[in-house]
Amino acid sequence: MMNKILKNRLRELREARKLTQQEVAKLLDIDHTTVSRHESGSRDLSPEDIQKYARLYKVESYELFIDPKDLQEQEDGSEDEAESGTTTTRE
Questions:
Q1: pLDDT tens, position by position, 20-59
Q2: C-alpha 87 chain-centroid distance
Q3: Whole-model pTM?
Q4: Residue 16 included in any domain
Q5: How large a percentage of the chain has pLDDT more than 90?
């Protein structure tokens, strides 16, 4: 599942910025087939690759591995708690 989220996330971030795989490859100084393989999940990302993508897309590295819907739900929950003045303790 993690791999599916990552590859979908890479594609979503690229498309949201209206970039082609070739443009991303040029910006990251890698071959366009590498970008394609990262997005298809057929090639693993190194820690350096993760940092490059995160910098390019202006996100934290961990956000590449989180479904944006889950991230939004967490942010919405935090805002609700802040507005009500309550916090939830997780054990």
A1: 999 999 999 999 999 999 999 899 999 999 999 999 999 9
A2: 27
A3: 0.72
A4: yes
A5: 55
Residue 89 counted as domain residue: no
**What CA–CA distance (Å, rounded) separates 2 from 8?**
10
For 57, the domain range is 2-84
Q: What is the rounded distance in angstroms from the CA atom of residue 76 to the CA atom of residue 80?
A: 6
How far is residue 86's CA from residue 91's CA, in Å, rounded to a whole number?
A: 16
Contact residues for 91 (Cβ-Cβ < 8 A; gap 6+): none
User: Is the separation of the CB atoms in 36 and 30 below 8 Å?
Assistant: no
Place of tokens 């009500």: 84
